Fold this sequence. Notes:
Blueprint: H1 18-21, E1 24-26, H2 32-48, E2 51-52, E3 61-65, H3 66-73, H4 77-83, H5 91-95, E4 102-107, E5 110-115, H6 118-130, E6 138-141, E7 148-151, E8 154-159, E9 163-165, E10 176-177, E11 180-181, H7 186-198, E12 202-204, H8 212-215, H9 222-233, E13 238-242, H10 247-250, H11 262-278, E14 284-287, H12 304-315, E15 321-325, H13 345-350, E16 361-366, H14 381-384, E17 389-395, H15 411-419, H16 429-432, E18 436-440, H17 456-467, H18 473-484, H19 490-501, H20 503-510, E19 548-549, H21 569-574, H22 584-587, E20 590-591, H23 602-625, H24 633-665
Parallel strand pairs: 1-2, 1-3, 3-5, 7-12, 7-18, 12-13, 13-14, 14-15, 15-16, 16-17, 17-18
Antiparallel strand pairs: 4-5, 4-6, 8-9, 10-11, 19-20
Helix pairs in contact: 2-6, 3-4, 11-12, 17-18, 18-19, 20-23, 23-24
Amino acid sequence: xxxxxxxxxxxxxxxxxxxxxxxxxxxxxxxxxxxxxxxxxxxxxxxxxxxxxxxxxxxxxxxxxxxxxxxxxxxxxxxxxxxxxxxxxxxxxxxxxxxxxxxxxxxxxxxxxxxxxxxxxxxxxxxxxxxxxxxxxxxxxxxxxxxxxxxxxxxxxxxxxxxxxxxxxxxxxxxxxxxxxxxxxxxxxxxxxxxxxxxxxxxxxxxxxxxxxxxxxxxxxxxxxxxxxxxxxxxxxxxxxxxxxxxxxxxxxxxxxxxxxxxxxxxxxxxxxxxxxxxxxxxxxxxxxxxxxxxxxxxxxxxxxxxxxxxxxxxxxxxxxxxxxxxxxxxxxxxxxxxxxxxxxxxxxxxxxxxxxxxxxxxxxxxxxxxxxxxxxxxxxxxxxxxxxxxxxxxxxxxxxxxxxxxxxxxxxxxxxxxxxxxxxxxxxxxxxxxxxxxxxxxxxxxxxxxxxxxxxxxxxxxxxxxxxxxxxxxxxxxxxxxxxxxxxxxxxxxxxxxxxxxxxxxxxxxxxxxxxxxxxxxxxxxxxxxxxxxxxxxxxxxxxxxxxxxxxxxxxxxxxxxxxxxxxxxxxxxxxxxxxxxxxxxxxxxxxxxxxxxxxxxxxxxxxxxxxxxxxxxxxxxxxxxxxxxxxxxxxxxxxxxxxxxxxxxxxxxxxxxxxxxxxxxxxxxxxxxxx
Length: 677
Ligand code: GCW
């Protein structure tokens, strides 16, 4: 293990702060967020030799809000140039209507950031680090979504196997220890700074599976929640809490949590008012109801609109939001029953409720219909509820993508989801996500925040994509590499970039072929176990037999799931010929000899990708080894250790999957490679 005791600066090392700290900086606003920014500038100038100045006309860098920019404009031409930006065509025109916007300009050697509000100024100032400007440049950016949220699956009580963080692979919880909210929140402050630099503005601090101890965050522990909120607020981040639907019973002592019962509504209203007394800018509640054993409205014969609305009405007077999760399915399914299809569940439950939710309900939908697998189609719920605010939920913590022991840069996967267009009108997932983006965080107390040092790139990329969903994920990777390793030689940075750029596809190649999921060890979900979930109640089957594999989800002969998509996707997924190869086994059950559009057969594809995947990891190991002595020693050592595990694991995946498919199909590898009998 690494010997680092203070957490890594991640993508904000001092050397990366030069654009904020080398010259004279003018920052005339005041207020809490501007004080935070001033602290950043003071730190950057102390390191890089610049200083703050009261005289705008002498400044090299002016950090302004609309409020202060007007007064300075007469004296500084670069400010006029920035303010005029709205009148010039290009990126800025699209940026204009959105809140949180900032404009950056550089003119005659002077750099200006004008934020529409203090949070926008903070984001714009951080943006300077990743996008140094040339003279004559004007850049405008505004977050595409008002809410960019990270959800922590953190508990107070530690689980005997998983520890304190459900699906956490990065040490302990940043927020909690055995006693509740940590006394020392200095790491939370550093974390908030990292998040703010990417544009994150909302954090849910506790697990959506709300256990008895954590339920009390809503009541007894409010003073401690207020301490967290105070830290996050300094960085423009609102605090949210996960709450249990049965709280009126478990905390309030009422006989029922029926959402239509007036006493229940009154309890939520009074409880929520107390939350706002403690945390005036509280963001709202995150709820997992009727899901994997959590209580919900079904228990009272009510539907999910009734359930979400009672909380929404309690929050509305205070400006809060309910993030209500659509992850509702039968986790006690009978594997013998081939007509029930977990993939259908969210759409079956929620699409009929479109238009029934209060305006401050955001329905939070996992990006795929199953559960954060390496490859899934986009959830059809996202196209089915135009009258509901939807947030798309991603999983930054790598539960099914290598658990932060494998390198797996997920930017390209998420980008593919966000750009997916349901129809020819080009309406993408990102534009449908009017409620914003949310993701499960991958950070904890590990020295590198994310266990695997390279997994930081996923945290960075999520925040950036939540602000700017159309940005090229490869550019985000470049930004992250530049910021994180500012002192490394260009060839070193290129090498890190190369190694990470295709790592999601590499991970897919040695784990999950053609859209088949869940071939992992049940419970902890790490490593191969092809039939591990095949006869369980979780609804996650691949139906491999001696002839073929895959789930028939067609309308013609299967579960009818394809019918949940609008055209053209409904027909495309329905048709064996038109279905994209990478999702073939998600939608169809086919013989092993079925020929893919790539020209190869299903079984040969499994062999080929698994051998190629291991070779790709071997190359990664070699590439990383060559960087020894050219990057920070602790980072190099930590990644080396994890790559060794990745290689071991990739070989295990290759061997188990190849053997499984050979044994089941009896079809040998065309290339005669060694497959264990
Ligand atoms: O993927 C599954 C995880 C659970 C998680 C659940 C969810 C918090 O295995 O650990 O519970 O999803 O998203 O609610």
